[in-house]
Amino acid sequence: MIINPGPDDSADVSGYVARAAERMHEQLADVSSFIRLSLEEAIPELRGDARIVEMHRASVEGNVDTLLRALRYDIAVERVEAPTAALEFARRLAQRGVPVNALIRAYRLGQRRMNELVFREVRAIDDAAVRFAVLEAITATLFEYIDWISQQVVTVYEEERERWLENQNSLRGLRVRELLTTTDAIDIDEASASVQYPLRWHHLAMVMWYPERSVAGDELSRLQRFARELGHAANASATSLFVATDQTTGWAWLSYQSTTPAAVATVRQYAGTRPNPPSLAIGTVRAGVEGFRRSHREAEAARALATAGGHRAPTVISTTDPGLSAAALLCRDVDAAREWVTEVLGNLAADNDNDARLRETLRVFLRCGASYKLAAEELDLHFNSVKYRVGRAVVRRGRPITQDRLDVEIALLATQWLGAAVLKSASE
C-alpha cells in the first residue's frame, strides 16, 4: 500500500489523506484481519467460541470501514456513529461477563495496529514535510475516532451489563458460575439452596442455543421454556436448572436421584419431536458437585465441536456419541487438526462429495473390524461396492492403511465431526 504523490499536489495534505484511506479501504479485509488477529492474540477474552470470534470480526471490520470512510470523505468524527456490529459485540461481551477493560484495551491496541499500517502507507511520500503533515492528520483523526467510538461502546456495554444482570436472575447465575470455576471447598447444602437445585444428586448437563437472533428476539424465553418442559418430559427428579449465557445461548441441568442410563436418549427423542427446537450439546449423567461440573464441561466440549463443524440446522450432539470425545480433543486446535488430517489422509481429505463417500465407507469398514460383510450390512451396500470404495479410498490416500490404522481412524472421526473445518478446499 504505497502513495506516489505527483509534482502538482505535493502540498495537498487532504488529498493525500483521502488517497491513503482509499487505498487502505481497497484492502479492507486484509487490514481488518491483521488488526483482529493481533487483538485476539493479545487479549484472551476475545478468543471465545466461534460466535464471539465472528462477532469480533464484524466489529473490527465495521470500525475500520467507518474510520477509512471518515478519512476519505473528510467527515467530522463527532458526526460518526459507532457501527452496529461494534455495539452488538459490546453487548455480547457484557452478556458473557467479559470485563469492560478487555473492550477498552481492544480499542487502544486496535489504534496502535492501525497506526502501524498508516505509517507503512505514507512512508513513500518523498517530501518529509508533507509526509509528516499527512501522518499528523491521520493519527489525529484516528485518536479522535477511537476516543469517540470507545465512549459509545462502553456506554452500551454498561447499559447491557446492568440490564442483563437484572433480567437473568443474576444471583443464581453468578452462583452457578462460581460453582463451575471455584477450586475451594463449598458447603453443598448451602450452595444447593442458593441455586435452588439439588447438587448432591445426579446431573445431566446441556448447552442449548439458537444459531442467531430472530426478528422477535425471544430466543432466551424460548430456551427457558424448553428447559422447563424438557425436565418434565425427561422425568427429572426436580425442577431443571437454567442459566442464560447470552441472548441465544443457555446452560441447563436435569437432576436425578439415581443414575439414569436412558436420560440422554430421552432428551434426544424429546428434542426431535418439538417444533423449532434449539440445538443441544449434552454431557453424561454424573453424580455430586464434581459431576455437575464435569457433565457441563462435556456439554461445552460437544457444543464447541458442533459450532466448529459448521452445524447451522438444529442439531443434537452428545458426549456419548461414538468418536465424539476424541474429535472434541482435536477441536481445541482446529488449525493444527486440519494440518494433521491432511497429512494422514492425503488427497482423501479433499472437501468434495466423492471423497466424502469414500471416507464414510472407510470409516465404517474400519469400525467394523475391517469386515467388508459387516460394513456392507451397516451401509446397506453390496459387498463388492464396499470393497471397491475401500480400495479407492486407499488409492486416494496414496499409501496403505496397515501401518498407521489408528491414525487413519482418528482422522476420519475428525472429518466426520468437524467437516470442512479440517478438509482441503477445492482451491488447495
Write structural notes for this entry.
This protein is of the alpha+beta class. The chain folds into three domains: 7-167, Globin-like; 197-321, Alpha-Beta Plaits; 333-422, PucR C-terminal helix-turn-helix domain (Arc Repressor Mutant, subunit A), CATH 1.10.10.2840. It contains 17 helices and six strands. The chain has helices at residues 13-26, 28-42, 50-72, 84-96, 100-122, 128-167, 170-181, 188-195, 219-233, 263-273, 288-308, 324-331, 334-345, 353-367, 372-379, 383-397, 405-418, and strands spanning 202-209, 241-246, 249-256, 279-282, 286-287, 316-318. Strands 1, 2, 3, 4, 5 and 6 form a six-stranded mixed β-sheet that branches. Helix 3 packs antiparallel against helix 4 (84-96). The longest helix is centred in the middle third of the chain and has 40 residues, at 128-167. The radius of gyration is 27 Å and the shape is flat.
What is the element layout, followed by pairings?
Elements: H1 13-26, H2 28-42, H3 50-72, H4 84-96, H5 100-122, H6 128-167, H7 170-181, H8 188-195, E1 202-209, H9 219-233, E2 241-246, E3 249-256, H10 263-273, E4 279-282, E5 286-287, H11 288-308, E6 316-318, H12 324-331, H13 334-345, H14 353-367, H15 372-379, H16 383-397, H17 405-418
Parallel strand pairs: 4-6
Antiparallel strand pairs: 1-3, 1-4, 1-5, 2-3
Helix pairs in contact: 1-3, 1-6, 2-3, 2-5, 3-4, 4-6, 5-6, 11-12, 12-17, 13-17, 14-15, 14-16, 14-17, 15-16
Q: What is the count of DSSP helices, taking H or I runs of 4+ residues?
A: 17
CATH topology of the largest domain: Globin-like
> How many domain regions?
3
Total number of strands? 6
CATH level 1 class label of the largest domain: Mainly Alpha
Largest β-sheet summary:
6 strands, mixed
Low-confidence region ranges: 1-11
CATH architecture of the largest domain: Orthogonal Bundle
Distance between the termini: 27 Å
The percent range for strand residues is: 5-15%
Q: Can you give the helix content as a percent range?
A: 55-70%
What order do the helices and strands follow? HHHHHHHHEHEEHEEHEHHHHHH
Class by alpha and beta content:
alpha+beta
Instruction: Let me know the CATH homologous superfamily of the largest domain.
Output: Globins
Overall shape: it is flat
